[in-house]
Design brief:
11 helices, Rossmann fold, Alpha-Beta Plaits, about 40% helix
Length: about 325
């Protein structure tokens, strides 16, 4: 079966700045694929190219078999898009926004009312048709944006940071909807900053400075990208502990992880007693320090640090 997305050696350059640097990807039909990376890594530029909104400098890409350069209208007819910035109209009602986008997507007028009722019910907004969008909470606005993107029953869905600034319950509700759509056969490309959300994807890719630096299932990424020991340290005050360990340069990486620190190093186990003694000498109380299985965030940080070292001519 032909993949739902194929990207071959795709590049986008703005003057001397390379936003997307020779990336290649492929997605199966009905797959949830996560594209992870820091701000400015090239995620949104990639999506804009795939939607036919931006011409690539070189390379080739197709969505549902349609070429992104020569068949962009066909892509937009078969794909939905939820942008990272709220793109609906705050002064219009929920129903008015949906009807507007349904019209943009050429949904037959006689089908709009029935489809609106169905999709608003699926996203949990039934009964709010007359509410002005500007009065809705962030999570409700994003659910409406998703409903609008689904108005024309797309086969492919692009979600660019769909849960940014959304509360935890709304994030969970949105992901439940994403799972349902994938089970029905919709292919979904999602960008996110949340590592717990990335775990929900069947496959993920790390994009950094325009390049794909790692790709695979979440399990494969965690197994293959962290070639070191990872320790979790529970201590307080956390900010002082972070500064002390980073300044000491004992470990390859020291990072905040919730209310703890994660340290990554090939010899972390052998260095842990010295690290705890150093923290206590700086009036940091250490409650716990134990070796853990690397998280996806650990893998992400380790891979980006490795890319930085390679770019600076230091492969270690």
């Amino acid at each position: 079966m032909e993949p739902s997305l194929r990207v071959d050696d795709l590049t986008k350059q703005f003057d001397s700045f390379v936003a997307v640097d020779h990336i290649s990807l492929a997605m199966a039909r009905g797959e949830i694929f996560g594209l992870l990376g820091p701000n400015g890594a090239g995620k949104t530029t990639t999506i804009r190219i795939l939607l036919g909104l931006l011409a690539p400098t070189s390379g080739h890409a197709s969505v549902l078999g349609y070429d992104v350069v020569t068949q962009s209208e066909a892509i937009r007819a078969h794909a939905g898009y939820v942008s990272q910035k709220f793109a609906l109209y705050p002064d219009l009602t929920v129903a008015e926004n949906f009807d507007f986008y349904a019209g943009v997507y050429d949904v037959p007028r006689k089908q709009i009312t029935e489809r609106r009722a169905q999709l608003l019910r699926e996203v949990g907004l039934s009964g709010l048709e007359r509410e002005r969008v500007g009065a809705l909470a962030g999570g409700s606005r994003q659910r409406l944006a998703l409903a609008c993107a689904l108005a024309h029953q797309p086969e492919f869905l692009f979600l660019d940071e769909p849960t940014a600034g959304v509360d935890a319950l709304s994030r969970r509700a949105l992901w439940d909807l994403i799972y349902e759509l994938a089970e029905r056969g919709t292919s979904i490309l999602v960008t996110t900053h949340y590592m717990d959300e990335a775990e929900n994807c069947q496959r993920i890719a790390f994009i950094y400075q325009g390049k794909i630096v790692a790709e695979g299932t979440p399990t494969e990424i965690k197994r293959d990208q962290v070639h070191a020991q990872v320790f979790e340290i529970e201590c307080e005050p956390l900010d002082i502990a972070l500064t002390v360990l980073r300044d000491a340069e004992m470990f390859d990486e020291v990072a905040l992880y919730g209310s703890t620190l994660h340290v990554i190093d090939a010899h972390a186990r052998a260095k842990m007693d010295a690290a705890q003694n150093l923290l206590r000498a700086n009036n940091v109380k250490v409650m716990r320090a134990e070796e853990i299985i690397p998280s996806l965030e650990d893998a992400f940080i380790a891979r980006l640090r490795s890319a930085d070292r390679a770019a600076n001519g230091n492969p270690k």
